[in-house]
Records
---
Amino acid sequence: MIRRPPRSTPLYSSAASDVYKRQAHYRTHLNVAGFYEKRGDWKLALQHIEAAMQLNPLISRPYEEKGLLLQRRGKLAEAHDAFELALNRNANDPRLFARAGDIEALQRRWLGAIEHYRDSTRVDPSYTLGHIKLGLSLARAGQFEAARVALSLADALATHERDVREAFAYVSGLEQEQRAH
């Protein structure tokens, strides 16, 4: 039979208990936010995300979730700000750089997108989607040779083969279209 340690041990100190409660409540708020968003109540979803941010202001996930919610709502400037705040808390997550790049790409700001996607591949050179998105943004900026290099790096990683093939085809089509004009 496994027994719990007595409550007088450091495991049950008030500081440890407070940290545990904050962690539990932070996750609960994010889960509830997802529920409200699925119901279509994005304002309540945002309130719960912001409550999670207050409970754990040093963790990037609530800021990322806020960015994703705002992106889905079409509030791209606010979404970009949320992703930047997430990056301030965790600059080692290539997905956060890619998400910020996605916002730039949605606004056709190719140089900003390129910068973020490059950062995503710098943080994790094995992040295939970062290389693919970098290649696509480079092509949209008219840098076709650099786009092929980025896509070749993605291809060498041997994951997302279909996405890489489609990206190469898109880049070729975009280059041909640009030459025709």
---
Amino acid sequence: MTIFRKKLLINSGIIFTIIVLVSVVLYIVISKFNSINSEILYYKEKAHASQKEINEFSSLKTDSVKAEAALLLMRKVTPLRDDLFMFRADMEKIASKNSLRSIFSFRNDTPGSENTLGYYNFNMTVEGDFDDILAFMKDVEGSLYLLELNQSLIKGSGNNTSGQFDGKIFYAEEVKNSINN
């Protein structure tokens, strides 16, 4: 039985050694696999972020084309600088139509650039009935001009009301069709 014990002990030692070696190899393989898996996830996230940046860049390019088209359209529907000589007469005509007295003046001119419209600052005072001033404002809003009112002040009541309006009237320097060029 001693020989049997020795053989059993030797075989048990060999099996134990094999199990330990297989465990070590398996541990190394699993840790390598986890490391490779982490790397794959890192590069996958990096690729996803790069794709997102490419999509955002593409969106910016598309938005840029849309903005250029909108600016071109705005330039086409906005009167040219030389056409603004009728603005004063049109505002006085609208005031007269609404039974108002008017005083109008242009102030300074700010030329446009490649990406902006030019504009004149103007000041207009109208006097008359309160309801007529409101009708005047509605008619001005519906006019063909692109206006921005920076300040409006209405004071008084009834037939003794005055309205003072400070604003900008925009104009296009020239219409350039940069989309088709």
